[in-house]
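User: Predict the complex.
Assistant: Input components as received:
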Amino acid sequence: MSDAAVSVSWWARLRSRPALVTVFALLLGFVVGALVIVTTTASVLDAWRGFFHSWSAPGHALKLTVDNVGAAYRTMFEGAILSPSNFWHALTTGHGWPLALTPLSETLTYATPLAIASIGVGIAFQTGIFNIGANGQAILGGIAGAAVGSMIHLPMVLHLPLTLLAGLLGGVVGGMVPGLLKAYTGAHEVIVTLMFNYVVAAFLILTLLSTALQMPGQQNDISRTIDGSAQLPPLFGASSGLRVNWGLFVAAAVAVFAWWFLERSSLGFDFRVTGANPQAARASGINAKAVIVLVFAISGGLAGLAGVTQMAGTTHFVDGGFLIGNAGIGFTAITVSLLGRNRPGGIVLASLLFAALGVGGRAMQAATGIPLDLATVIQSAVVLFVATPVLVKEIFRLRTAPTAAVQLATKGWGS
Amino acid sequence: MRLELRGITKRFGSFTANHRIDLTVEPGQIHCLLGENGAGKSTLMNVLFGLLQPDEGEILIDGEAVHFTNSGEAVRRGIGMVHQHFMLVPVFTVAENVVLGFEPVKSFGRLDRNRAREEIRHVSQTYNLEVDPDAVIEELPVGIQQRVEILKALNHNAELLILDEPTAVLTPQEIDALMEIMRSLAASGKSILFITHKLKEVKAIADVITVIRQGEVVGTAQPTDSEGDLAALMVGRSVNLTVEKEDVTPGEVALEITDLVVRDDRGLPAVDGLSLSVRAGEIVALAGVQGNGQTELVEAIAGMRPVESGSIRLRGRDVTNATPREVLDAGLGHVPEDRQLHGLVLSMSVADNLVLNTPRRAPFARRGSRNLGAVAQNAGELVQRFDIRTTSIQSPVASLSGGNQQKVIVARELSRPLSFLVASQPTRGLDVGSIEYVHRQIVDERNGGLGVLIVSSELDEVLALGDRIAVMHKGKITGVVDPSTSRETIGLMMTGAHAEES
């Protein structure tokens, strides 16, 4: 046994790690992105067409390819993480720090609510429950938070926690509806939560147009702005112009809590047992109904917290477009959770990746004219490859077991 | 067909599953491949059936070397395989299943049901295998389903049949019927490769026995050899096949079931006015053909199935319609019939599975927070005490062999304070070494004053373990007899005859 262990090379050991599939999936995602750039940029496509036509040296076409793909990914990197020139300027002159840090600040700002919502979805996945309603629950959190933040006036030490709590409870309520329906009537949570999102989206408009939450003197679907005492303050002060805020710590606390909950708490153990084998869970004395209701309360609560973090940290009000369409972090959370293998640590990394691709994609679009949709293509391709570990393993000759995350996520439907 | 395997070696990484295996099956011969779980029998069969490629060695059919890259090629060369888990479509009819993949068609590709039916009739008459071609698979008993699998192989013109642990899912009567079929197939010239770890069956049917252990052929044996010799060859040490039971005077009543009625999933009364009592320090073995309400009875005791009427009392305490949690807290130890479905979470570690139904009990958790140190310590002790073979207590329980998975359940149930133990099919699918071990543990608990109810479809087990034997038929107890009662009498009672009549 020990002889065999010693003779196994570091590469063999490294390539049997499940996380490696994700890393290679990421790599493949960028390869797919590069192919999309090549096939959609006219000049590059022409150069290759010329090459195949006359069998001239491929140098020109290759150079154009490298230039275009390089420019796209460079501007993406600089827009999402760091521009070396801006950074160097700030480092040598001591000025321009806000400019140098803006990309990172934006990425973290987007990642914060996404990570919180995704962890909520991940906890549900680990319990074998599909919470497709995270977006609706997040919107409810945002509405509840906006109400408490704008219509009650308190000192910050009370007001901010109360606002966050209101958001959390809004999400809990939103989660309990499908939870109770599933536990006591057997209604399928995928259908109920999916439809629930539409109900909430309509509820949002209704609230904004016909209640005291509407901004006074406004006819549009926009809420009052919350008090400064209810806002998550910018991390580096308002004068820095950097949007990254104290919500970051909320997300970090959620991640730590979720890790403890799943790995160390008795209730989390019940959840995981239920997710992995509901029959064994029942035989072991776990109350299935209680688990279903509780997991929806927790998952919905975290989604609500994500919504209120977005509201109190970034927008400071809600309007008819709050978390709707492209901004629907509750939907993105499903993919992010899958990518992070439903584990808090993995989800935090996956959130950062998705946020960086989104933020960087916008910078890329501005700089190169390549549409932002490329970021979506890369995101989707990465998830696609993560969901097909066999393909990735075949391409890179890896030797890992099928990922638990995917098995989990592909279950559920039948139950 | 004459099949010859020469020096077959199959490695998985650094692990050698088969090492230089030689084996010859003559036409019309029933060749038994005997070995414990994990000895490499299934790997060898998968190599032979083209599902795996050997690293070394060759396969010869009638003297000609063959290479199978998939099972289709093996089928075309006349090899048929009946898997342990049937490969049938439950909602299709017998005829549809048998012709699946080789369907006779009419114009426009329509399935020719009449010809399919005729084909089945022809094959079943040739080999005396009675099956209704129009019966739907899911409505057939397991024994008949297996017959359909055999028909399927014969319909593909199999000359060599591989039967992989075919008796594991069968009742004693069905096993007898299968043996009859095997004999008549051999008589008509088919070769049969019969994989098993059950000594009685080997002795009953084999022409030649090849024993493999840890991937190597350790010898050939004759069916006339004693069971003890075969077991010793298979396990690699001498094993004790009879259960030593000291005399223990039973104490007060530990489990009292009165006029119990329990419905099955279809709403029919599966347990129909059953009364039974088991005393402390006594093993009552419940015999019966599967599907006579044993499963529902045990589920009702464990709190997993609602009780319609009647009562269940555990040490005087009423646990009728209690939740599983309440029953567990009342001290019921439960070794479930389907260990992978109800007893284990396969993806979780050995350590977690060992506290699966006591995660909140001190010292495993305090105020909602798990004490993983205590969980690991508990696992370390139990792995040692119950001889659970695992690479680590953190390995997923799925990586363990069937016998060791069962040991995990037995260890978990016996390591907490019990007021009663219910064990359903406690040794199903286990090898001789593990059976011996599990039986010893159960008898030790009974010697320590625990009341035990064993449910088993294996008559050997019932006779070996039971201090009293209760026979169940159609949801009722047809009689409670002494273990010295003859097999024939008990067999008759299983069909509904009462003890005093027989």
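Chain B touches chain A through 29 residues (CB under 8 Å).
Let me know if you want any component modeled separately.
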